[in-house]
């Protein structure tokens, strides 16, 4: 397995995590707070807007199954890329969009994906893109929230994950990696 990680902020982390967990090649996720100026902030502190943290998802993935560019394309479908500090009904700096990396090579891929998105939109996306400064896991009750609370609030169209996978079936290396068919 070609294990990699990236940190994606897409508004409320519940929906972003639930969507990404539906993609082949996503091995594990963890919700938390990225790039905080406060060490180990709580949810309440992050909601105050004074920590500088963004609600984000640590995504561990197999790059041989879902390359970073394809993962980012899926992520872009979960957000309004032109919105600042707002996704769905959630507002505040903690709900900004962002892509944060730990491997400098990923920065090149991220910038290329954002340039392609800008060409598609005809405008510059309002997505933060930077190396990860820090990441603090969120409280246990936030982890896999929508899996445990399927009727919880979510601004992300979770059904779109299946459509994304179907549209990009040839881009996923499923059979070779033992993931079976797209219907599983």
What do you see in this structure?
- By secondary structure, the chain is of the alpha+beta class.
- It has a single domain (3-177), classed as Peptide Methionine Sulfoxide Reductase, Chain A, CATH 3.30.1060.
- The protein contains six helices and eight strands; from the N terminus they run E-H-E-H-E-H-E-E-E-H-E-E-H-H.
- It has helices at 13-20, 43-47, 68-76, 104-121, 145-148, 160-167; strands spanning 3-10, 26-34, 54-62, 86-87, 90-91, 97-101, 128-131, 135-137.
- The strands form two sheets. Strands 7-6-1-3-2-8 form a six-stranded mixed β-sheet, covered by helices on one side. Strands 4-5 form a two-stranded antiparallel ribbon.
- Helix 3 packs across helix 4.
- The two termini are 20 Å apart.
How do you describe this structure in short?
With 184 residues, this protein is α+β, with helices and mostly antiparallel strands. It contains six helices and eight strands.
Jot down its keywords.
6 helices, 8 strands, alpha+beta, 184 residues, single chain, two-stranded antiparallel sheet, Peptide Methionine Sulfoxide Reductase, Chain A, 6-stranded mixed beta sheet
Determine the number of helices (DSSP H or I, runs of at least 4 residues). Answer: 6
CATH topology: Peptide Methionine Sulfoxide Reductase, Chain A
The description of the largest β-sheet is: 6 strands, mixed
Full CATH superfamily name: Peptide methionine sulphoxide reductase MsrA
> What Rg do the Cα atoms give?
16 Å
Identify the overall geometry: globular
* Amount of beta strand: 15-25%
């Amino acid at each position: 397995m070609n294990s990699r990680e990236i940190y994606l902020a897409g508004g409320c982390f519940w929906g972003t995590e639930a969507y990404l967990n539906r993609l082949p090649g996503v091995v594990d996720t963890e919700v938390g707070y990225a790039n905080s100026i406060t060490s180990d902030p709580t949810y309440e502190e992050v909601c105050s807007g004074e920590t500088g943290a963004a609600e984000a998802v640590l995504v561990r993935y197999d790059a041989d199954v879902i390359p970073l560019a394809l993962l980012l394309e899926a992520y872009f479908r979960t957000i309004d890329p032109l919105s600042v500090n707002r996704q769905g009904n959630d507002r505040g700096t903690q709900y900004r969009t962002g892509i944060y990396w730990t491997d400098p090579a990923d920065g090149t891929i991220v910038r290329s994906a954002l340039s392609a998105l800008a060409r598609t939109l005809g405008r510059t996306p309002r997505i933060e893109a930077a190396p990860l400064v820090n990441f603090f896991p969120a409280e246990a009750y936030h982890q896999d929230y929508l899996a445990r609370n399927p009727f919880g609030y979510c601004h992300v169209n979770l059904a779109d994950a299946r459509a994304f996978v179907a549209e990009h079936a040839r881009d996923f290396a499923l059979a070779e990696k033992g993931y079976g068919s797209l219907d599983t």
